[in-house]
Amino acid sequence: MASRDFETQQLLKAYRKGLISEQLFATQMAEMGNGQNGAAATDMAARPRPSYDRAAEDLGNIVALEHVNVTVPDQQPATLFYVAGLGLTRDPYLFTSTNNMWVNVGRSQFHLPTRSDPQVLRGNIGLVVPDRKALLERLTKMRKLLDGTRFDFREHDGFVETTCPWGNHIRCYEPSRRFGPTTLGIPYVEFDVPLGCADGIARFYREIMGASAALMDDRQGAYACVAAGNGQNLFFRETDRPQRPYDGHHIQIYVCDFSGPYKRLAQKGLIFEESDQHQYRFKDILDPNSGKMLFTIEHEVRSMKHPLYLRPLVNRNPGQSIFHYAPGHDSLSWGAEEMN
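Request: output the structure for the sequence above.
Response:
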């Protein structure tokens, strides 16, 4: 009897998930017998199937926000902040010399090439890290080592606000339902944009890039929200603060429709670099309706055929040390089950 009950439950599960047809379900139930258990199972199958919001699974054309690139004048304080302080991982395979550093953050990266003038993103970068207490301990140790730079950190209710040695603002959050299964990664980049620009920026990403984008507002005011991957977003938040001159920092995205946005960007004269077969770049965001310039941020746009797409990234466990070493715990997973 126990075996039949198990088979009935498995059959019900397959039927409700749409793995077998109603006809096949009825046939197999009949073969198992139409006694009391069969009748009860048939009654259970007649109950309403669970409904799902299928639109919640849509990403739009941008499938991943892969990296944020800012130049740094000195690799040593960059290592102290991004690797020792934030607890991230220097990529062990690419750019391992002293003039550039790629830093892994789950499935994303910071790219930090050396240049005399540091680049500072106009806004802030969101970071999910798994242990707030350990993060604060690491950052505290950086105070003396990064003295004389712009490094700083402050605690807030929902995040830890950090400032890199040259002024980039990175907000560190613990994993939560807000970020889905991500326990280590870059869930968003938020840019400060002039008042009145958010609606046109959302329209640009929808109509030119084919992305999911909308004008939204909260207690801080209006902003454009652009889907940039699974659990990743670009935010363009309106502010009345003076805009700093653009210094060339950039972001890199992967898109599934590579040629469509290219054609629309090219028609408006916005492509400024034909990188290679798998990549092109643009930096000016215009209102598709009026043609008005709204914001400038370089986009490195790659196809899903790019050799680096879905490249596995090494992420270390920053809690490991020679004094408290746990065998088998050197690496850190970027994701977990969905948060409740």
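The helical segments are 2-16, 22-31, 36-46, 75-85, 132-145, 198-207, 259-267.
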